[in-house]
Amino acid sequence: MHLVSVNVGQVRRIEIDGRSVTTAIVKRAVTGSVRVRPPGLEGDEQADPSVHGGLAKALYAYPVEHYPFWRTVRAQAGAAAWDAPLAYGGLGENLTVSGLTEDRAYIGDRLRFANCTLAVSEPRHPCFKFNAAMGFAQAGQMMAQSTWCGFYLAVIEAGTIEAGEAFVLHAGPREVRIDELFRATTSRRLV
Predict the structure, then answer these.
(1) In terms of Cα–Cα distance, which of 32, 55, 53, 49 is closest to 115?
(2) pTM (2 d.p.)
(3) Separation CA 43–CA 23 (nearest Å)
(4) Among 126, 128, 137, 145, which has the highest number of CB atoms less than 10 A from its own CB?
């Protein structure tokens, strides 16, 4: 398992469906060592800490394994050309990870990097800003159907993190998987 990319974004105002909203969903990859502390990554902001951010949701991780799916569905929806790249951070994630997908991540699992430790805390639920970032209105629905939601991380031990480094997964209680919790909480939201 390794960290493919570290991504940060600044709060900005964008237009979505005719209204002006603030968001930091637009992330860009950064190089070098980045400080990690309980509120999140140095250089990253959250527009609405009641939904994204805070101690339990300091960072958002997304599996690189799902990127080909999102490139394809964006092209099918006419939101991007078939050969258009989808830059890391494109799903709003701070950490693009390899080797840890939602069906293998459990609440309480710890990701031990060389200089910090993070804990899996909960799944991400998409909103209208995710649809806007992906470029088509059904993106959130497709995330719900696939359960490819990624997961939030709490900072257990502050330190630094860098793209390319490996991490070790230390199992938590192994009671609730991210995809299971996402499916259960998403079905309640759709009722």
Answers:
(1) 32
(2) 0.95
(3) 15
(4) 126
Instruction: Please report where in the chains the tokens 């940060």 appear, as a residue.
Output: 8
Cα–Cα dist 103/77, whole Å: 26
> Cα torsion for 29, 134, 11, 46, to the nearest 10°?
-80
Rounded to 5 degrees, what are φ and ψ at 154? -95, 150
Q: pLDDT by residue (tens digit) across 18-75?
A: 999 999 998 999 999 999 999 899 999 988 877 778 889 999 999 999 999 999 999 9
On whether the CB atoms of residues 106 and 175 are closer than 8 A, the answer is yes
**Residue with tokens 């469906």, as numbered in its chain:** 17
- Which structural domain, as residue segments, surrounds residue 54? 2-190
Q: How many domains does the chain have?
A: 1
